[in-house]
Amino acid sequence: MAAIELKDITKEYRSDEIITSALRNVNLKIGSGEFAAIMGASGSGKTTLLNIIGCMDIPTSGTYLLDNEDLGGAKEKHLSSIRGKKISFVFQHFALIDDYTVFENVEIPLMKQPLSKAERKKKVLSALKLAGISNLAKKKPSNISGGQKQRAAIARAIVCQAEIILADEPTGALDSKTGNEIMRVFSELNNMGKTIILITHDKNVASYAKRLITIQDGSILSDEAI
Ligand SMILES: Nc1ncnc2c1ncn2[C@@H]1O[C@H](COP(=O)(O)OP(=O)(O)OP(=O)(O)O)[C@@H](O)[C@H]1O
After folding, report:
1. Cα–Cα distance for residue pair 197/23, rounded to 1 Å
2. Measured distance CA(37)–CA(19) in Å, rounded
């Protein structure tokens, strides 16, 4: 089943008199449990595509079906609940709150849910374990390494049991050894059944995926199993 289906999606940004076509007639299906990398030159439309898939942005035209639900015209409240439940994000610069401990950062997505403190704790500890940072729960982000920060961001992304994880340049701020460690975490999550879609400029990073989608000038240039 295609968890994600984009039909003839276009995205235009308008500012003053200038219209930028960020995506042009994109057709794409990504099934449940896939691991896809998106590559393409700067400005080719990768982030726009990921943001539309992640319900962070809406297309100018075309149809987006998520688990067969047409999201055209969906209200922000509904899109926001999808972001909490079905889809979560990992960002290049981690987006952790410095004043919170790692535990508290990972707990954030659970605060919207009707869970007891004990239930939240159980879920956070399980996510930290999966991300390989059980020992860092009490640390603040300023006292851990970049790779550990990204593991904390991954723990935060999986704590709600979202099935789809989207990552925009998740290794972009890391050295290559640490980047490889992070990619192994994504591979493990994919082996557990998570759908992973990530943007990268790095062919080595993309090689962890099982499908490579290349974008050029807002269109899909190639889409192949790797
Ligand atoms: N909010 C915006 N307003 C106007 N134009 C935008 C906006 N966001 C993106 N664009 C334009 O849309 C096009 C696609 O941008 P996008 O960020 O999706 O590309 P990208 O492939 O992710 O680039 P990079 O690799 O540099 O992050 C670019 O021409 C960009 O300048």
Report:
1. 17
2. 28
The residue contributing the CA closest to ligand 1 atom 24 is: 42
Mean pLDDT across the chain: 95
Give the separation between CA 136 and CA 116, rounded to whole angstroms: 22
- Dihedral sign (CA 130, 131, 132, 138): negative
Query: Is 216 touching ligand 1 by the criterion CB < 6 Å?
Result: no
26-62: per-residue pLDDT in tens? 999 999 999 999 999 999 999 999 999 999 999 999 9
Predicted confidence (pLDDT) per residue in 64-121, tens digit = 999 999 999 899 999 998 988 899 999 999 999 999 999 999 999 999 889 999 999 9
Q: Using a pLDDT cut of 90, give the percent of the chain over it.
A: 93
**CA–CA separation, 52 vs 60, rounded Å?**
10
- Spatial distance between the Cα atoms of 211 and 3, rounded to a whole number of angstroms: 15
Q: What percent of the chain has pLDDT over 70?
A: 99
User: Is the CB–ligand 1 distance for residue 22 below 6 Å?
Assistant: yes
* Residues 6+ positions from 45 with CB-CB distance below 8 Å: 11, 22, 23, 215, 217, 218, 219
Q: Which atom of ligand 1 is closest in space to residue 44's alpha carbon? A: 21
Binding site membership of 43 for ligand 1 (Cβ less than 6 Å): yes
Separation of 52 CA from ligand 1 center, angstroms? 13
Distance 39 CA to ligand 1 centre (A): 14
Q: Are the CB atoms for 64 and 56 separated by under 8 Å? A: no
